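Quick review question:
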């Protein structure tokens, strides 16, 4: 499966006496619920079942832990490449991606981690990484739309960048709505309305008799 490329540095270390993947999952949950600044060291170590020295030895510091947890998130439930690539058309790809979010985001009750947890973080590196990851997400939509243009699905003059930004903005807005308690049904209605903005091919002009 193709992974989403992000500018998050890989963190390496010796094998530890705990399940690193499970520890990351638990840290991810804390960051997701409380945000980067709201997640204290005691919150993280309690959730992960380790002490502060073990956290520092395994992950570096809180900032490094967040960045690795974010990579874990993007390469897991948030990975969009498969949805975008396997759909037969660009329209179907973007609709599938948004519908997946409409169903998945309300289950978390917290919206998208990438949108909700690092936007206003005190760490410049976390903020910069969050911005870069969101830009990557938008770029993946633009590339799929550009492919649709090349394949004749969309008119040649379609503004791929503008269309990608529109649908990425819809997705981010759905994340906020989900965090506020929106239901899957209401978010699916948002998707249905957003897809009405999809540009269609102009009908061929009839030759004069």
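Suggested answer, residue by residue:
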């Amino acid at each position: 499966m193709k992974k989403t490329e992000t500018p998050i540095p890989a963190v390496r270390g010796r094998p530890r006496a705990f399940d690193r993947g499970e520890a990351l999952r638990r840290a991810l949950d804390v960051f997701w619920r409380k945000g980067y600044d709201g997640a204290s060291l005691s919150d993280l170590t309690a959730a992960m079942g380790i002490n502060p020295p073990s956290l520092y030895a395994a992950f570096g510091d809180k900032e490094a832990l967040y960045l690795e947890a974010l990579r874990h998130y993007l390469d897991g439930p948030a990975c969009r490449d498969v949805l975008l690539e396997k759909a037969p058309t660009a329209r179907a790809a973007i609709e599938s991606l948004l519908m997946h979010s409409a169903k998945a985001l309300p289950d978390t009750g917290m919206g998208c981690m990438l949108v909700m947890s690092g936007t206003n973080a005190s760490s410049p590196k976390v903020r910069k990484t969050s911005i870069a990851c969101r830009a990557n997400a938008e770029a993946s939509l633009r590339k799929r739309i550009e492919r649709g243009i090349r394949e004749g699905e969309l008119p040649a003059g379609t503004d791929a960048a503008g269309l990608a930004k529109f649908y990425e903005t819809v997705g981010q807005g759905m994340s906020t709505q989900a965090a506020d308690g929106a239901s899957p049904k209401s978010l699916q209605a948002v998707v249905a309305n957003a897809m009405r903005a999809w540009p269609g091919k102009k009908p061929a002009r009839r030759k004069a008799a």
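Why it works: Residues 1-6, 8-16 have pLDDT under 50 and may be disordered. The chain has two domains: 20-74, 81-195.
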